Amino acid sequence: MLPAQDNSVVVTIANEAADAAVVADALEAFGATHGVPREALVALQVSVDEIVSNVIKYAWKDGVYQIHVRITSQTDAVKVEVVDDGEAFNPFGAPEAPTSQKSSKPSAGGIGIHMVRQLMDQVEYARKGMRNHTVLLKRCRLLPPRR
Fold it and tell me: How many structural domains are present in the chain?
């Protein structure tokens, strides 16, 4: 489990498709509470959904496991960390813009990650111990929070 911080929220879900909505709801509430501008929040929602969906679909062959998501407000950004103990996989290890050999159009499998790269200001992946750590950073000027 990820430790909570004063400026963060941690959500733990099962690797089931319906649980992705729990993360989306938490991100929406976090955005309202911490004054995340709508455009930045939408970019985060799309990107986090892509990462969490990929973990749910591909990290484990079978069984029920946990995915931990920490959303943190920083002075000029929002950082989201997705941690799972599935198979090692760097989603950002693929080429920058996925294309097929026959055309310049993006190929299937990788379009979502390409989109995440375009929407986020920074993306990182690390395998720490037996866990995947995927980090997304969206720079934005936080508005006065609604309480």
Answer: 1
Structure confidence by residue, pLDDT tens digits, 77-100: 999 999 999 999 999 986 666 555
CATH of the domain at 57: 3.30.565.10
**3 occurs within a structural domain:** no
Say if pTM beats, i.e. exceeds, 0.85. Answer: yes
15, with CB counted inside 10 A (0-12, 13-18, 19+), is buried
Alpha helix positions (H), 59-144? 111-119
Query: 1 lies in a domain?
Result: no
Angle between the 38-58 and 20-34 helix axes, to the nearest 10 degrees? Answer: 160
Which helix (H) or strand (E) segment holds residue 104: the answer is none
Place of tokens 């501008």: 37
User: Are the CB atoms for 90 and 125 separated by under 8 Å?
Assistant: yes
Range of the domain at 70: 8-139
Instruction: Determine the Cα–Cα distance for residues 120 and 42; give it in Å rounded to an integer.
Output: 11
